[in-house]
């Protein structure tokens, strides 16, 4: 049986500083590659922080050259990477909350958040979702935060053949118990692996709970971060079953040259 290794990148984003956050993402991808991670998922709007007031200014087209070095890095290190970014699908279109898939073959796929939290409509428009991913024998469905609060979203993913439901989120301490109960419930109800990548610190005026987690089909918790902070939350599956590991990530100095 081929080993499947997936990870949630629990990151602390620097508000509105795309280049600094790209450097941080590179650090996570590098460490993930060293751990044999095949799929690495970052939180909602990880490349900018959850900065609604800055979203219109920061929004890019998905294939903007500013992300090409990060795409190349993910390809070179062999880690399919899902990053969060405000996007426009054309130069004058509405701003969407995007999850961009940087694939190991150099291609780019786009998922846009379908369901908005109250207040997000002031900065964003609802998106249209996106196609599922194939990772070896595993079919992956993506979600961004409020998407998973709609049971129909996870049900549709399962009905379409998803083995893994992967969500980039921003969840505060007040919402953590209820939200993780929903996610764990999807693992039980739909026999899917469920991955949740949460922010590791404050962003956009919200205090994130951290505690990114991965549940096995059936709902057993495989692994979770203990709290906030930068961490790589890894789950591996082989013939013996699931194992988990949390790797603390020491961030690089915020140099502009990256790694």
From TrEMBL:
**UniProt key word Hydrolase:** yes
Q: Which GO terms describe its biological process?
A: putrescine biosynthetic process from arginine
The family database entries (Pfam families) matched by this protein are listed as: CN_hydrolase
Q: Could you tell me what this protein is called?
A: CN hydrolase domain-containing protein
Gene Ontology molecular functions: N-carbamoylputrescine amidase activity
Alphabetically list the UniProt keywords: Hydrolase
Q: Where is the CN hydrolase domain?
A: 4-239
InterPro entries, alphabetized = Aliph_Amidase/BUP (IPR050345), C-N_Hydrolase (IPR003010), C-N_Hydrolase_sf (IPR036526)
Checking CDD domains in the record gives: nitrilase
